[in-house]
């Protein structure tokens, strides 16, 4: 239960949040817990897959949405200046990004933003590069929009992903790549790219006139001592060809409100994207997204601090379990996000068999690594943003699956 313990200087209420409450989501509309039999062919699975949290969303956001309902009219809405100011302040304070209102475009989500940028700035059969493995919708948006998906397989070094710059440069040239879609922090591995890695990538793209989309939706979910760097902040010239995607949705567990931002510092790129958005009504958004995002960035900093402390505890628990109970299993310790990427090749199963094994034997729903690209074969992804009792149960089920 939430408990008020003190007042902040600016008059906002500081709350001591509990991340131990198990909220029953089985009869909700939530994708993660709903219709498990239809999704996985097994009703008894414990869902630890899709990337939303099993923690309550911050109370200030819930209160602000109730305030919208109290007006009793759910009419059309426009983004207020206070929302723009909240976004500008958050990005400057947390990510050293200098933004102005005329560089911010709103969209219903990061994935729709990728789609609209692809449509606005590239042509059919153009080559678009991504890493492998990487967040599944990257390749989906490329292929559904009839562009060529060029993958650069990530290298493995000390159980962490590493970019293969030689491979990237070779393919940029040979395939005449027009756009690179970057995931930072990386999903599914949780890698927080270093400044030097980002500089090297950006310089290659600059050299060969390749636009970059930098998906930074997990930017606020970083574990100490790692530090997130927003690509566009590394050099003023990068503003000419880097488009940054951001949202409050992952950070504050409000994915269902459907609001994201495209930061386009280059006025020409801004205009091209904006005109395309207008042509397909892409920027006509809902009131709840505007309100929830502004509240997140202005009132929910204390919640985020407490969340990160709990995620650190959960990650320590998961790593200790694998180290002591499943020492034969290699894994990546994430530097950011709440996603845990582990190697299941010791089971000797095909990727399809692997997914079915965890579902029907372990009774746990995870994300199949191969869904993130060929480089994810034999891996599974675990979401550890949940109360400890669910994490403990999920780990027991994973261990049982390995034992069988």
Walk me through the structure.
Helix content is 38%, strand content 18%. With 404 residues, the chain is of the alpha/beta class. It is globular. The two termini are 39 Å apart. The strands form five sheets. A seven-stranded mixed sheet has the order 4-12-11-10-9-5-6, sandwiched between helices. Strands 13-14-17-16 form a four-stranded antiparallel sheet. The chain folds into two domains: 3-58 and 301-403, Aspartate Aminotransferase, domain 1 (Alpha-Beta Complex), CATH 3.90.1150; 81-299, Type I PLP-dependent aspartate aminotransferase-like (Major domain) (Aspartate Aminotransferase, domain 2). Residues 1-11 have low confidence and may be disordered. Strand 13 and strand 14 form a beta hairpin. The protein contains twelve helices and 17 strands.
| Strand-residue proportion | 15-25%
How many separate helices? 12
The ordered H/E elements are EEHEHHEHEHEEEHEHEEEHHHEEHEEEH
CATH-scheme architecture of the largest domain: 3-Layer(aba) Sandwich
Measure the end-to-end span: 39 Å
CATH topology of the largest domain: Aspartate Aminotransferase, domain 2
Q: Give the count of structural domains.
A: 2
Mean pLDDT: 95
Main sheet specs = 7 strands, mixed
Overall form? globular
Text of the CATH class of the largest domain:
Alpha Beta
How are the strands ordered across the major sheet?
A: 4-12-11-10-9-5-6
Radius of gyration: 21 Å
Cofactor: pyridoxal 5'-phosphate
Family: Belongs to the class-II pyridoxal-phosphate-dependent aminotransferase family. MalY/PatB cystathionine beta-lyase subfamily.
Enzyme class: lyase
Organism: Carnobacterium iners
């Amino acid at each position: 239960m939430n408990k008020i313990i003190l007042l902040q200087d600016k008059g906002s209420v500081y709350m001591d949040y509990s991340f131990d409450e198990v909220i029953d989501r089985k009869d909700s509309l939530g994708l993660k817990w709903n219709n498990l039999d239809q999704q996985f062919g097994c009703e008894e699975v414990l869902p630890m897959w899709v990337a939303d949290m099993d923690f309550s969303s911050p109370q200030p956001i819930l209160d602000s949405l109730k305030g919208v309902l109290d007006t009793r009219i759910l009419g059309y809405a426009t983004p207020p200046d206070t929302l723009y100011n909240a976004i500008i302040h958050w990005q400057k304070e947390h990510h050293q990004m200098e933004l102005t209102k005329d560089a911010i475009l709103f969209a219903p989500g990061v994935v729709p933003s990728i789609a609209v940028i692809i449509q606005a700035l590239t042509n059919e059969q153009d080559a678009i590069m991504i890493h492998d493995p990487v967040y599944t919708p990257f390749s989906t948006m490329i292929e559904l929009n009839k562009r060529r998906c060029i993958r650069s397989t990530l290298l493995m070094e000390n159980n962490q992903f590493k970019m293969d710059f030689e491979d990237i440069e070779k393919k940029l040239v040979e395939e005449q790549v027009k756009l690179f879609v970057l995931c930072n922090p990386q999903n599914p591995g949780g890698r927080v790219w270093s400044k030097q890695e980002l500089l090297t990538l950006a310089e290659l793209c600059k050299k060969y006139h390749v636009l970059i989309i930098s998906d930074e939706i997990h930017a606020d979910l970083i574990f100490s001592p790692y530090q997130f760097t927003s690509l566009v902040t590394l050099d003023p010239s990068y503003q000419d060809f880097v488009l940054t995607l951001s949202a409050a949705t992952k950070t504050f567990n409000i994915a269902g409100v459907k609001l994201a931002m495209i930061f386009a510092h280059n006025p020409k790129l801004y205009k091209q994207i904006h005109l395309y958005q207008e042509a397909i009504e892409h920027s006509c958004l809902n009131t709840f997204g505007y309100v929830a995002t502004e509240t997140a960035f202005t009132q929910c900093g204390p919640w985020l601090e407490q969340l990160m402390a709990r995620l650190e505890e959960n990650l320590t628990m998961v790593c200790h379990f694998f180290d002591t109970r499943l020492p034969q299993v290699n894994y990546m310790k994430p530097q950011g996000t709440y996603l845990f990427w582990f190697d299941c090749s010791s089971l000797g199963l095909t990727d399809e068999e692997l997914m079915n094994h965890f579902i029907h034997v372990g009774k746990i729903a995870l994300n199949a690594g191969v869904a993130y690209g060929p480089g994810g074969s034999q891996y599974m992804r675990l979401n550890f943003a949940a109360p400890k009792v669910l994490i403990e149960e999920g780990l027991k089920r994973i261990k049982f699956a390995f034992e069988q």
